[in-house]
Amino acid sequence: MADVAWNKKDLLGLEYLTKEEIELILTTAESFKEVTTREIKKVPALRGKTVVNLFYEPSTRTRVSFELAAKRLSADVINIASETSSVKKGETLIDTGRNIEALKADIIVVRHNFSGAPMMLAKHVGISVVNAGDGWHEHPTQALLDMFTLKEKLGRLEGVTVSIVGDIAHSRVARSNIWGLTKLGARVTVCAPKMLIPPGIEQMGAAVTSDIDEALKGADAVNVLRMQFERDEGSAFPQQLDYFKKFGITEERLAKAKKDLIVMHPGPINRGIEISSEVADCPQSVILEQVTNGIAVRMAVLFLVSQAREGKHETVD
Ligand code: CP
Hints:
Shape: globular
Bound molecules: phosphoric acid mono(formamide)ester
Structural class: alpha/beta
Strand content: 15-25%
Order of helices and strands: EHEHEHEHEHEHEEHEHHEHHE
Distance between the termini: 6 Å
Number of helices: 11
């Protein structure tokens, strides 16, 4: 690998990273994964730093995982949910961010329902901003943990074939996975009913199909996405049962795919809608391993952005 330096104070999306920068995050995460297996799962890398989790949307995995990652790095952690903050009194995201900066925090991890919110925030504060999912745009740490898990299972990402099946239209996970996987040489196919395939997805480097058997045939991994009913205005979604019949990942469909096909899902799972319970819990499923790997990947991200803000540029050879 070429000598790579990380010099970004923010992590806003995989679209804005080079192949080498993505590889650096994954390599750094490998070291941190070892830390998470120790009896004392803590290193002093961010001692004296404060990480604020600022979430404007519900979350279980990402929020807990960022909190654990920050604590494993010895940082102090504050969690703010918009429902119980001054956001309810009309405070804007930028004002909230500036106040968090005035309180001498070092990193804001933000999840927001508006695409582009983390970028806007990063322009208005000097401290680091990490995107924990913005609207339909990107969920970079989810894609990084997906890639980390795939690399752990397959030993490589170059030349690997990944099918992403489900609600592509509303999915920030799909977009981040397409950017990241294609930059690292994987082949990506997206599969959904035509109405859930957004324009421009092929230009991002993904093949497109609405044939589920074609999507699974020859794939090394399938990443199953949830139907995001909460983002639908009422017309775009096929009936739930109809969707499961035509696109649901079931044992019957798995039987026609590669016998060691890896089954992934970013969560939360809707059993019986996009995936059957049998498949979600089958030996090929790495869904809970993805969750575990999220801690190491987020430790790497928090560490790298913190180092960059201090002018310490991490490198790998
Ligand atoms: N995968 C994911 O983002 O899950 P949460 O919404 O629970 O954070």
